[in-house]
Design a protein that fits this description.
Length: about 160
């Protein structure tokens, strides 16, 4: 249950911040927080990360929903036996993904606003997806480590 609460908190936080940006800023308005380094810039992203796949709205809704649904099922079925870091990473990915899917389904675009000037503009949902993926990699390499153990023991046919 706690992982579903985490997902809900991520979605609600993401949507509240996005609503605050859309109410208080004009589209394409940029407010310097740290001059030439960090701005709050309100944009609409009709694509995926880095505005890739623009114009493929249905695909950008359906594919994330499949991943989110799979994560929710895994969390439900494995909640008592899976490692907490694995479940947390899936909750972060699902929560962030759902936050952006809500935007795409309702608005037709994702609201982005964190602008580090040298990096594409992103939002809270994007942060949780990236952190969740990072935690998943950490889990796979250092906790689960099955791939590393097999390689180390030469079980994969290598010397």
């Amino acid at each position: 249950m706690r992982y579903y609460i985490i997902i809900a908190v991520i979605v609600v936080l993401d949507q509240i911040v996005k609503k605050g940006v859309t109410i208080n800023m004009e589209l394409n308005e940029s407010i310097p927080v740290i001059s030439d380094f960090f701005h709050i810039t309100y944009i609409h992203n009709t694509g995926a990360a880095f505005s890739l796949m623009e114009g493929l709205r249905v695909l950008l809704i359906v594919l994330p929903l499949i991943v989110i649904f799979a994560a929710l099922i895994y969390i439900f079925k494995k909640r008592k036996e899976a490692h907490p870091l694995l479940l947390l990473s899936l909750a972060f990915v699902a929560g962030g993904g759902l936050g952006n899917v809500v935007d795409r389904a309702v608005l037709g675009y994702v609201v982005d606003y964190f602008d580090f000037r040298v990096f594409p503009i992103f939002n809270i949902a994007d942060i949780f997806v990236c952190v969740g993926c990072g935690l998943l990699v950490i889990y796979m390499l250092f906790i689960d480590g099955k791939g590393l153990k097999e390689e180390k023991n030469g079980e994969n046919g290598s010397i």
